[in-house]
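All the exercises in this workshop are built on plain-text protein records. An example says more than a description, so a record of this kind follows:
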Amino acid sequence: MGTGSTVVRIASRYDIGISVVGSPIHRFGKYLRGCLKNALLSFRTELGGVGNISNMPLFSQKISRLRLTMTIFRQALRDKVESLQKNMGSEEPLNPELKMMHEWKSRRIMMKALAINGSHRKGKNTATMLRLVLEELEKEGVRTELLEISDLNIEFCRACNRCLKKSECSIQHDDVPRVAEKMTASDAIIIGSPVYFGNVTGMLKAFMDRTRWMHMTENLLDGKLGAALTHAGLRNGGQEMTQSILERFLQHHGLRVVEARDPRSGVYNLGPMGTLYDSMVGDEIHWKRGVMQDSLTVKTCRVLGQNLLRLLKQS
Protein backbone atom coordinates (compact mmCIF):
# COMPACT_ATOMS: atom_id res chain seq x y z
CA MET A 1 0.00 0.00 0.00
CA GLY A 2 1.43 3.40 -1.00
CA THR A 3 1.96 6.35 1.30
CA GLY A 4 -0.93 8.29 -0.28
CA SER A 5 -3.53 5.59 0.38
CA THR A 6 -2.10 5.02 3.85
CA VAL A 7 -2.52 8.71 4.62
CA VAL A 8 -6.15 8.70 3.50
CA ARG A 9 -6.85 5.54 5.49
CA ILE A 10 -5.25 6.91 8.65
CA ALA A 11 -6.93 10.29 8.22
CA SER A 12 -10.28 8.57 7.82
CA ARG A 13 -9.66 6.31 10.84
CA TYR A 14 -8.70 9.17 13.12
CA ASP A 15 -10.97 11.83 11.60
CA ILE A 16 -8.04 14.09 10.76
CA GLY A 17 -9.24 17.21 9.06
CA ILE A 18 -12.23 15.54 7.41
CA SER A 19 -14.05 18.85 7.36
CA VAL A 20 -11.87 21.82 8.26
CA VAL A 21 -13.46 25.20 7.58
CA GLY A 22 -15.88 23.43 5.25
CA SER A 23 -13.11 21.90 3.12
CA PRO A 24 -13.03 18.15 2.25
CA ILE A 25 -9.93 16.14 3.01
CA HIS A 26 -8.69 16.04 -0.58
CA ARG A 27 -7.95 19.77 -0.35
CA PHE A 28 -5.51 18.99 2.44
CA GLY A 29 -4.01 15.95 0.72
CA LYS A 30 -0.66 17.53 -0.01
CA TYR A 31 -0.48 19.01 3.48
CA LEU A 32 -1.31 15.68 5.11
CA ARG A 33 1.19 13.77 2.99
CA GLY A 34 3.95 16.15 3.90
CA CYS A 35 3.18 15.93 7.62
CA LEU A 36 2.70 12.17 7.78
CA LYS A 37 5.28 10.95 5.31
CA ASN A 38 8.22 11.32 7.67
CA ALA A 39 6.29 9.69 10.50
CA LEU A 40 5.34 6.71 8.35
CA LEU A 41 8.84 6.25 6.95
CA SER A 42 10.32 6.48 10.43
CA PHE A 43 7.81 3.95 11.69
CA ARG A 44 8.60 1.50 8.89
CA THR A 45 12.34 1.93 9.50
CA GLU A 46 11.98 1.15 13.20
CA LEU A 47 10.09 -2.05 12.37
CA GLY A 48 12.89 -3.10 10.04
CA GLY A 49 10.48 -3.47 7.12
CA VAL A 50 6.74 -3.68 6.69
CA GLY A 51 6.70 -7.49 6.74
CA ASN A 52 8.92 -7.90 9.82
CA ILE A 53 6.40 -8.34 12.63
CA SER A 54 7.84 -11.47 14.29
CA ASN A 55 8.18 -9.61 17.58
CA MET A 56 4.44 -9.00 18.27
CA PRO A 57 4.86 -7.21 21.64
CA LEU A 58 7.26 -4.76 20.04
CA PHE A 59 4.94 -4.39 17.02
CA SER A 60 1.95 -3.64 19.27
CA GLN A 61 4.00 -1.08 21.13
CA LYS A 62 4.91 0.65 17.86
CA ILE A 63 1.27 0.66 16.76
CA SER A 64 0.25 2.27 20.05
CA ARG A 65 2.92 4.94 19.59
CA LEU A 66 1.71 5.62 16.05
CA ARG A 67 -1.88 5.97 17.28
CA LEU A 68 -0.75 8.44 19.89
CA THR A 69 1.17 10.36 17.23
CA MET A 70 -1.94 10.52 15.05
CA THR A 71 -4.04 11.77 17.95
CA ILE A 72 -1.54 14.51 18.72
CA PHE A 73 -1.31 15.42 15.03
CA ARG A 74 -5.08 15.63 14.71
CA GLN A 75 -5.37 17.97 17.68
CA ALA A 76 -2.45 20.08 16.47
CA LEU A 77 -4.06 20.45 13.04
CA ARG A 78 -7.37 21.53 14.52
CA ASP A 79 -5.63 23.96 16.88
CA LYS A 80 -3.80 25.44 13.90
CA VAL A 81 -7.00 25.96 11.93
CA GLU A 82 -8.74 27.55 14.94
CA SER A 83 -5.76 29.86 15.37
CA LEU A 84 -5.98 30.92 11.71
CA GLN A 85 -9.68 31.58 12.10
CA LYS A 86 -9.18 33.78 15.14
CA ASN A 87 -6.17 35.67 13.83
CA MET A 88 -7.10 36.65 10.31
CA GLY A 89 -5.58 40.09 10.89
CA SER A 90 -2.19 38.75 11.92
CA GLU A 91 0.88 38.73 9.71
CA GLU A 92 1.11 34.94 9.80
CA PRO A 93 0.96 33.59 6.21
CA LEU A 94 -2.18 31.56 5.44
CA ASN A 95 -2.58 28.34 3.53
CA PRO A 96 -3.77 29.45 0.03
CA GLU A 97 -6.91 27.28 0.25
CA LEU A 98 -7.83 28.67 3.67
CA LYS A 99 -7.03 32.21 2.60
CA MET A 100 -9.31 31.97 -0.45
CA MET A 101 -12.15 30.53 1.61
CA HIS A 102 -11.80 33.16 4.35
CA GLU A 103 -11.65 35.94 1.79
CA TRP A 104 -14.82 34.64 0.14
CA LYS A 105 -16.64 34.35 3.47
CA SER A 106 -15.77 37.93 4.35
CA ARG A 107 -16.59 39.21 0.84
CA ARG A 108 -19.70 37.26 -0.08
CA ILE A 109 -22.01 39.45 2.03
CA MET A 110 -20.97 42.32 -0.22
CA MET A 111 -21.65 40.43 -3.45
CA LYS A 112 -24.89 41.26 -5.21
CA ALA A 113 -26.76 39.75 -8.15
CA LEU A 114 -29.55 41.55 -9.99
CA ALA A 115 -32.16 39.74 -12.08
CA ILE A 116 -34.43 41.57 -14.50
CA ASN A 117 -37.60 39.86 -15.66
CA GLY A 118 -38.57 41.18 -19.08
CA SER A 119 -41.93 39.44 -19.09
CA HIS A 120 -45.10 41.53 -19.21
CA ARG A 121 -46.58 38.92 -16.85
CA LYS A 122 -45.24 39.38 -13.37
CA GLY A 123 -44.19 36.32 -11.38
CA LYS A 124 -44.81 33.75 -14.13
CA ASN A 125 -42.52 31.28 -15.90
CA THR A 126 -39.64 33.63 -16.72
CA ALA A 127 -39.64 34.94 -13.15
CA THR A 128 -39.59 31.37 -11.85
CA MET A 129 -36.53 30.59 -13.96
CA LEU A 130 -34.75 33.68 -12.65
CA ARG A 131 -35.57 32.72 -9.06
CA LEU A 132 -34.06 29.26 -9.62
CA VAL A 133 -30.81 30.94 -10.62
CA LEU A 134 -30.89 33.35 -7.69
CA GLU A 135 -31.57 30.57 -5.20
CA GLU A 136 -28.20 28.99 -5.98
CA LEU A 137 -26.47 32.31 -5.25
CA GLU A 138 -28.42 32.87 -2.04
CA LYS A 139 -27.19 29.54 -0.68
CA GLU A 140 -23.74 31.12 -0.30
CA GLY A 141 -24.92 34.44 1.05
CA VAL A 142 -24.96 36.50 -2.15
CA ARG A 143 -27.54 39.29 -1.96
CA THR A 144 -30.09 39.05 -4.73
CA GLU A 145 -32.87 41.17 -6.17
CA LEU A 146 -35.47 40.46 -8.83
CA LEU A 147 -36.91 43.40 -10.77
CA GLU A 148 -40.13 43.00 -12.74
CA ILE A 149 -40.17 45.07 -15.92
CA SER A 150 -43.96 45.30 -15.63
CA ASP A 151 -43.54 47.30 -12.40
CA LEU A 152 -41.31 49.91 -14.03
CA ASN A 153 -42.06 53.14 -15.83
CA ILE A 154 -39.78 53.17 -18.87
CA GLU A 155 -40.00 55.74 -21.63
CA PHE A 156 -38.77 55.10 -25.16
CA CYS A 157 -35.37 56.32 -26.25
CA ARG A 158 -35.74 59.72 -27.98
CA ALA A 159 -32.61 59.32 -30.13
CA CYS A 160 -31.42 62.72 -28.92
CA ASN A 161 -27.82 61.42 -29.04
CA ARG A 162 -26.75 63.19 -25.85
CA CYS A 163 -25.10 59.92 -24.84
CA LEU A 164 -22.74 60.19 -27.81
CA LYS A 165 -20.89 62.96 -26.00
CA LYS A 166 -21.08 61.87 -22.36
CA SER A 167 -22.42 59.01 -20.25
CA GLU A 168 -25.75 60.57 -19.54
CA CYS A 169 -29.37 60.11 -20.61
CA SER A 170 -31.62 63.11 -21.23
CA ILE A 171 -34.59 61.30 -19.64
CA GLN A 172 -34.29 61.41 -15.87
CA HIS A 173 -37.86 61.25 -14.58
CA ASP A 174 -38.67 57.56 -15.17
CA ASP A 175 -37.30 54.38 -13.52
CA VAL A 176 -34.29 53.81 -15.77
CA PRO A 177 -31.83 55.84 -13.65
CA ARG A 178 -32.82 53.82 -10.57
CA VAL A 179 -32.38 50.50 -12.38
CA ALA A 180 -29.07 51.66 -13.86
CA GLU A 181 -27.82 52.43 -10.35
CA LYS A 182 -28.73 48.92 -9.26
CA MET A 183 -26.93 47.47 -12.29
CA THR A 184 -23.71 49.34 -11.60
CA ALA A 185 -23.83 48.24 -7.95
CA SER A 186 -24.24 44.56 -8.87
CA ASP A 187 -21.55 41.96 -9.49
CA ALA A 188 -23.78 39.81 -11.69
CA ILE A 189 -26.75 40.68 -13.90
CA ILE A 190 -29.21 38.08 -15.17
CA ILE A 191 -31.83 39.04 -17.76
CA GLY A 192 -34.77 36.88 -18.78
CA SER A 193 -37.48 37.25 -21.37
CA PRO A 194 -40.27 35.21 -22.91
CA VAL A 195 -40.18 34.99 -26.69
CA TYR A 196 -42.25 37.53 -28.62
CA PHE A 197 -42.02 36.79 -32.37
CA GLY A 198 -38.46 35.54 -32.06
CA ASN A 199 -37.37 38.49 -29.93
CA VAL A 200 -37.53 39.95 -26.44
CA THR A 201 -40.66 41.63 -25.14
CA GLY A 202 -41.48 45.20 -26.12
CA MET A 203 -41.00 46.55 -22.62
CA LEU A 204 -37.62 44.87 -22.24
CA LYS A 205 -36.47 46.12 -25.64
CA ALA A 206 -37.39 49.67 -24.61
CA PHE A 207 -35.29 49.24 -21.47
CA MET A 208 -32.36 47.80 -23.42
CA ASP A 209 -32.44 50.79 -25.78
CA ARG A 210 -32.43 53.17 -22.84
CA THR A 211 -29.15 51.74 -21.51
CA ARG A 212 -27.34 53.17 -24.52
CA TRP A 213 -25.82 55.93 -22.38
CA MET A 214 -24.08 53.26 -20.28
CA HIS A 215 -22.29 51.98 -23.36
CA MET A 216 -21.53 54.64 -25.96
CA THR A 217 -18.71 56.73 -24.47
CA GLU A 218 -17.60 54.12 -21.92
CA ASN A 219 -18.76 50.71 -20.79
CA LEU A 220 -20.01 51.36 -17.27
CA LEU A 221 -20.80 47.68 -16.71
CA ASP A 222 -17.53 46.29 -18.02
CA GLY A 223 -16.13 43.29 -16.17
CA LYS A 224 -19.32 42.15 -14.47
CA LEU A 225 -20.81 38.70 -14.90
CA GLY A 226 -23.88 38.37 -17.08
CA ALA A 227 -26.37 35.66 -17.95
CA ALA A 228 -29.56 35.30 -19.94
CA LEU A 229 -32.52 32.93 -20.09
CA THR A 230 -35.66 32.63 -22.21
CA HIS A 231 -39.00 30.88 -22.25
CA ALA A 232 -41.61 30.13 -24.91
CA GLY A 233 -44.73 28.09 -25.39
CA LEU A 234 -43.57 26.06 -28.38
CA ARG A 235 -40.65 23.65 -28.23
CA ASN A 236 -38.92 25.51 -31.06
CA GLY A 237 -40.52 28.87 -30.46
CA GLY A 238 -37.59 31.20 -31.02
CA GLN A 239 -35.76 30.62 -27.75
CA GLU A 240 -32.30 30.36 -29.30
CA MET A 241 -32.74 33.58 -31.27
CA THR A 242 -33.98 35.47 -28.22
CA GLN A 243 -31.20 33.98 -26.08
CA SER A 244 -28.64 35.19 -28.61
CA ILE A 245 -30.13 38.70 -28.58
CA LEU A 246 -29.92 38.91 -24.79
CA GLU A 247 -26.38 37.56 -24.63
CA ARG A 248 -25.25 39.93 -27.36
CA PHE A 249 -26.74 42.83 -25.40
CA LEU A 250 -24.76 41.81 -22.31
CA GLN A 251 -21.57 41.43 -24.34
CA HIS A 252 -21.97 44.91 -25.83
CA HIS A 253 -22.01 46.25 -22.28
CA GLY A 254 -18.75 44.46 -21.51
CA LEU A 255 -20.18 41.71 -19.33
CA ARG A 256 -18.71 38.24 -19.25
CA VAL A 257 -21.54 35.97 -20.32
CA VAL A 258 -21.77 32.81 -18.22
CA GLU A 259 -22.92 29.55 -19.75
CA ALA A 260 -25.38 27.15 -18.16
CA ARG A 261 -23.35 24.00 -18.65
CA ASP A 262 -21.78 22.02 -15.85
CA PRO A 263 -18.12 21.90 -16.96
CA ARG A 264 -17.75 18.48 -15.32
CA SER A 265 -20.55 16.80 -17.31
CA GLY A 266 -21.74 16.32 -20.85
CA VAL A 267 -23.94 18.61 -22.91
CA TYR A 268 -27.69 18.23 -22.47
CA ASN A 269 -28.87 21.71 -23.48
CA LEU A 270 -27.36 24.81 -25.08
CA GLY A 271 -28.80 27.21 -22.52
CA PRO A 272 -31.61 27.90 -20.04
CA MET A 273 -34.39 27.94 -22.63
CA GLY A 274 -37.72 26.69 -21.36
CA THR A 275 -40.89 25.55 -23.10
CA LEU A 276 -44.45 24.67 -22.17
CA TYR A 277 -44.63 22.03 -24.89
CA ASP A 278 -44.97 18.56 -23.42
CA SER A 279 -46.15 16.14 -26.08
CA MET A 280 -48.43 15.71 -29.05
CA VAL A 281 -51.17 13.10 -29.42
CA GLY A 282 -52.62 13.12 -32.88
CA ASP A 283 -53.25 16.77 -33.69
CA GLU A 284 -53.58 17.81 -30.05
CA ILE A 285 -50.70 19.43 -28.17
CA HIS A 286 -50.36 18.66 -24.48
CA TRP A 287 -48.88 21.55 -22.51
CA LYS A 288 -46.96 21.66 -19.26
CA ARG A 289 -48.70 23.59 -16.50
CA GLY A 290 -45.58 25.60 -15.78
CA VAL A 291 -41.82 25.71 -16.11
CA MET A 292 -41.32 23.70 -12.93
CA GLN A 293 -42.60 20.67 -14.85
CA ASP A 294 -39.78 21.17 -17.34
CA SER A 295 -37.06 19.22 -15.52
CA LEU A 296 -34.38 20.03 -18.08
CA THR A 297 -34.95 23.78 -17.80
CA VAL A 298 -35.05 23.61 -13.99
CA LYS A 299 -31.71 21.78 -13.94
CA THR A 300 -30.16 24.18 -16.45
CA CYS A 301 -31.21 27.23 -14.42
CA ARG A 302 -29.71 25.77 -11.28
CA VAL A 303 -26.45 24.96 -13.07
CA LEU A 304 -26.36 28.54 -14.35
CA GLY A 305 -26.65 29.80 -10.78
CA GLN A 306 -23.88 27.45 -9.66
CA ASN A 307 -21.59 28.64 -12.45
CA LEU A 308 -22.24 32.27 -11.55
CA LEU A 309 -21.42 31.50 -7.93
CA ARG A 310 -18.21 29.71 -8.85
CA LEU A 311 -17.02 32.62 -10.98
CA LEU A 312 -18.01 35.17 -8.33
CA LYS A 313 -15.81 33.32 -5.88
CA GLN A 314 -12.91 33.54 -8.30
CA SER A 315 -13.34 37.28 -8.93
